[in-house]
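just leaving the lab so this will be short. what follows is a protein written twice so to speak, once as letters and once as structure tokens for the fold. can you read through it and tell me how you think this chain folds. thanks a lot i owe you, the record is right below.

___
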Amino acid sequence: MPSHFLARSCHYTGSTGCAARVRARTLDDRSPITLVTLTLLALGLATALVGCSLAGNGATGAKSRTGPKTPTPVAQGELAKAVMLNLWSLGVKQVQTVYQPRDASVTVTITLGGTIPSTPLKISAANDLTKSDCLMALQALWTSGIPLSRTMVLVQGPTQDEYANTINQPYGEVTLTTSQAHQIDWNSITAAAAWDAYGNDNEYLRGNFGVYD
């Protein structure tokens, strides 16, 4: 409504009613702008919240994909050192210690040098040496202070196959779990007593070294 008509109408209706109509019209004129502004602010706030939510989820997803860092298996070096220090090096050609951090198990492979045991006395000596080497390696492992679930010690050395070839084959082997190992007094037991304590299902000792005439 033009201003001069509004002025006239105010003159006839009174200033109070005119002021009310002017305020109502003013609010009506501003309401579209106010609604648009509020809508834009609401959209901006919603966008910001969604962005923060996505950023948070992205960070969480990155962490779960990466996962915790695998600690360096320092036990590998400590166990290998313990075995080497405790093992009598007589006849020993090579020692390999492999630690598996996944299940806290360890395998020790002792390779002997020399000639093939070809007489009853040499076979007996090879068997005694095998038992002693197994005990010394197991003693080092189970008294190292490193938690272990299973150990296997393999002693191998020169044998002869059916074609008269010299090859390395197992002389003896012992596999123990934690519960079995804790039943043995590693500080005082002898090689012969330890072999009896391992149990037939956990040990192997070669009797025939395959020397053919």
